[in-house]
Amino acid sequence: MYPSRHSSRITFGVLFAAAALMAAGCHSNNSNSGYGIEWVTVTDDPSDFTSYTTSLASLTMTRNDGAIFTAIATEEIVDFTTLGKSSELWASATIPNGTYTSATLTFDYTSAVVTVLNNGVPEQATLVDPTGAALTTIAVTVVFDPANPLVILPTYASTSAMRLAIDFNLAASNSVSFATSPATVTVKPFVTMGVAPADYKPLRVRGPLINSSTQLGTYTVYVRPFHDEASALGSVTMFNNGSTIYTLDGTTYLGSPGLNLLSQAPAGTTMVLSYTTFQPTATAGLFNNTYAVAGSSLETQSTVNLSGDVIQRSGNVMTLRGSTLSTPDGTSTYSTTDALLLVGPGTLVTADGVVTAAPLTANSIAVGQHVEAVGVYELTNGVTTVDATSSNSIAGRVRLESTELYGQLLGTTATGLSLNLQTINNWPVSNYTFAGNGMTTAQDSSAADYQVNTASAAIPAGVAAGNPLWIDGFTNAFGAAPPDFDATTVTAEASEPASLRVSWANGGTTTPFTGLTSSGFSINLANANLATAAIRIGPESISLASLAASPSVVPTSAGVTLTFSPRYAIGNAANGISVFSSFASYLAQLNTTFAAGTPAMQLEARGLYNRATNTFTANSVNVVL
Predict the structure, then answer these.
(1) Contacts of 569 (CB under 8 A, 6+ apart)
(2) DSSP string for 284-344
(3) CA angle, 1 as apex, 42 and 174 as ends, to 5°?
(4) DSSP character for 146?
(5) pLDDT digits over 303-334, tens only?
(6) Which pTM value belongs to this model?
(7) Three-class SS string for 566-598?
(8) DSSP code, position 30
């Protein structure tokens, strides 16, 4: 196991929005304060790494008059692979009002730990910079879209607060070589930022409870992001509705009953983990809560949290692969060695974001399920064991989290579909031993004919046998298959987020594209320096050379709104990265850059790939120089 460095939790620089700040949705405004608020969020997209842990050291902002202000200086340790399907609220930062044209994000790689998937198991990689040297701190400056700068208005409330959405692009920031043992990862961070994200991911907000109002349907927390156990990086209020799901102390509630119980929990010591949407309004931004987990369902001062994927179960002993151990001191450790989770009749089991008709038990956890467990930790002969049996005066809890399948459709049934299963949460299906999943040995789950119940999820129209599918949901109970899995969503290839990844060797190229116009471009597959070119959709990899022609890459037709903005970027960590929301403006920059003889080294674009039309519709395009 490889422990992450736990930084000191001291806040420097410009004031943070902590106790002095009003809650979100409050309309008390001091126009003479000279300061305003930015909600800083961080995300990335799914990548080839099994873990990618480094430190966000600081964030500084540059105003249009040249003044530089520190927005965040509390260092946070982050495993960026956990942000593939959500964004994290890093801080509610207070900075002087004005128009900001750029920001600088500093990473500290001194104690970074990165693991890659090698022959089906995680392997810790060696990290180097482009010269082959060891990594220390790296500062990346991002120039905002000139047409959409960050404008901070004077307020001490979250009235008129703005969001700064940061995206750390793992695919564009790293190259992996398996020619060495262990593998070598060459790091050159590529970051984009904007006042709106280029995706619709939910926001993850974590922190201790401050107060709540059952009358207003709200609760407020200090922002304590990632696995931080001490800081208060601002405050924010969550808005409840009738469909908000609460998991409190191992029991699930819907709507007001959950908020009522949360309001009775002690302020300051009750940790709350919330998943929300963000709704900008004319007078304030609202964080509308989808579901929340609080109390002893999270780690406490006497327990730890263990997450991972169940690859095997023998009785009440589960083997977890890709496990992360989070301890009360704020340390989060990813392990390349399988961990053990013990459960029993006293273990309280819930499913995140789901209100089940019948109570869940320890037998609700089957092979293939991703779990978050709370219990008592032991390290024996290098193996992590977490006891969640409630046999040590500790209320053991296990949360079932949404799990993703990938495979090819075999056919449909009266109640669902059968799948030629390839991966579970990106792990090869060969990692899993399904013994015990079935009602009988003969009915144990089989990857070659994996049975999925789709009563709660529609099968996309037009999907034929052999077509790939991405399915989210939960495994059926241990010993209850078939079916093997209960789907919440079923997605076809054309609707699943895709990543176009291209690299050039021998110093790069100034002619990476063909047909570069305001309507889009294609990758020049005849370029002599082309090294790799593929479309990645989860575990699926489509080589561009295998297609009849290079796909047409077209910019999204969606325009800039308060909740979404296309993001087209070019640059590198050494010289800065420029971001545009207009593809026409981006085109002008591309033409200028390549005309000046500056070569492209990598490209990463995100969007949707339509195989029928061979078109990649991009929400973002990132060219690394």
Answers:
(1) 142, 190, 192, 577, 578, 579, 580, 620, 621, 622, 623
(2) -EEEEEEEEEEGGGS--TT-EEEEEEEEEEETTEEEEEEEEEE-TTS-EEE-SS-EEEE--
(3) 40
(4) T
(5) 889 999 999 999 999 999 999 999 888 788 99
(6) 0.93
(7) CEEEEEECCCEEEEECCHHHHHHHHHHHHHCCC
(8) -
